[in-house]
Amino acid sequence: MSEAIESKVVSETLTQARDDVAQMNMIQAINSAMDVMMERDPSVVVMGEDVGYFGGVFRATAGLQQKYGKNRVFDTPITECGIIGVAVGMGAYGLRPVPEIQFADYIYPALDQLVSEAARLRYRSAGEFIAPMTVRSPFGGGIFGGQTHSQSPEGIFTHVSGVKTVIPSTPYDAKGLLIAAIEDNDPTIFFEPKRIYNGPFDGHYDTPAKSWAGHEAAQVPTGYYRIPLGKARIARAGEALTILCYGTMVHVVENTVAALGIDAEIVDLRSLVPLDIDTIEASVKKTGRCLIVHEATRTSGFGAELLSLVQERCFYYLEAPIERCTGFDTPYPHSLEWAYFPGPVRIREAINKILKD
Predict the structure, then answer these.
(1) Is the pLDDT of residue 8 over 50?
(2) pLDDT the model gives residue 12
(3) Cis peptide before 193 (omega within 30 of 0)
(4) Using alpha carbons only, how large is the chain's radius of gyration in Å?
(5) Which residues, 6 or more positions from 200, have their beta carbon under 8 angstroms from its beta carbon?
(6) What is the DSSP code (8-state) at residue 118?
(7) 143 or 100, which is more confident?
(8) Which residue among 149, 251, 294, 334 is the active-site one?
(9) CA distance 236 to 257
(10) Is 251 one of the catalytic residues?
(11) pLDDT tens, residue by residue, 104-160
């Protein structure tokens, strides 16, 4: 294991097998997390549309049914409400289901089961029953999937008490966070930014697709390790301003900041609920400036909650108004999705505005 990876492991107090590391993209890391947990815990089951023999639409579950059998990795009918409803029952009776919703856009028929059943089960039963389920789903745009394959609905779930919401930005984080989510006794929505499944994204639609090959965060331990939910990552240390982001936008922000030569501190939130407010607060108090970047629409997006929290906790330290750079308040525009993304131009404008104040 490289010195950089070892340092990261120690700093996050992870429990893991340190004997082997492999180059993985995010799909492979997610697959590895489920493989590790299914081998360790016979109560872990994987279910969803085409996750069995086919291995999932993005191949995230490839090979798992062949290894663990059809009783533990199985296909379901095309009914998101049914998938999640069955998963709630499984969790209540001792299993740890990992249902896949093929695209985040398809999750809406399952909202009643997630909000009214999974999120409330522990409270309404006074702790007698729990719903230890991890709902995996690809989310976000960037693959020309159109309006029904590109949405970012994370803000809906952060509003629901009893549900955790996790969004990784690297293969290393994806595996460690997914293992932690599967082990957690509460329902977790695990959104996977499909634009960076195979490599990081710099925000320019006309640049060649990148690969995770050679990227430090793609050096992933093949065994068990976990990253605690609710712990943000400082993707880049800096003094000039704090940029809060997650998922695909972490890479767009990193490339924009590097191109500008700005001494910005980039905070990769990793999980929105639970939120690492202590890391956010410490960073903003240090820099005195804050920019929030996310792909979802602006109105009622999670950035609004972040802005309020920073304002409440850091007001007397702020040297400029807090800015947001987000998707637009429109239905997802298939033909104009690259304009919809918060890209380098819009992020640069927001940074310049903050630094000039």
Answers:
(1) no
(2) 43
(3) no
(4) 20
(5) 210, 212, 215, 251
(6) I
(7) 100
(8) 149
(9) 10
(10) no
(11) 999 999 999 999 999 999 999 999 999 999 999 999 988 888 888 999 999 999 999
Give the E-state strand segments of 140-187 in sequence order: 164-166
Is residue 263's pLDDT more than 60?
yes
Q: How many residues does the chain have?
A: 357
pLDDT for res 14: 43
Distances (CA, A) of 46 to 18, 87, 171, 175, 322: 26, 10, 20, 16, 42
- Helix ranges, 159-290 (H): 171-183, 248-260, 277-287
Q: How far is CA 31 from CA 51, 53, 76, 100, 329, in A?
A: 11, 14, 19, 12, 34
pLDDT of residue 19: 56
Please state whether beta strands 323-327 and 21-23 pair in parallel, antiparallel, or not at all (unpaired). Answer: unpaired
Largest CA distance in the chain: 60
State whether residue 233 is helix, strand or coil. strand
* Domains of the chain with bracketed CATH: 20-221 (3.40.50.970), 233-356 (3.40.50.920)
pLDDT of residue 3: 40
What values do phi and psi take at 118, rounded to 5?
-60, -50
304: helix, strand or coil: helix
Residue type, 312: E
Q: Provide the pLDDT confidence category of residue 2 given band limits of 50, 70 and 90.
A: very low
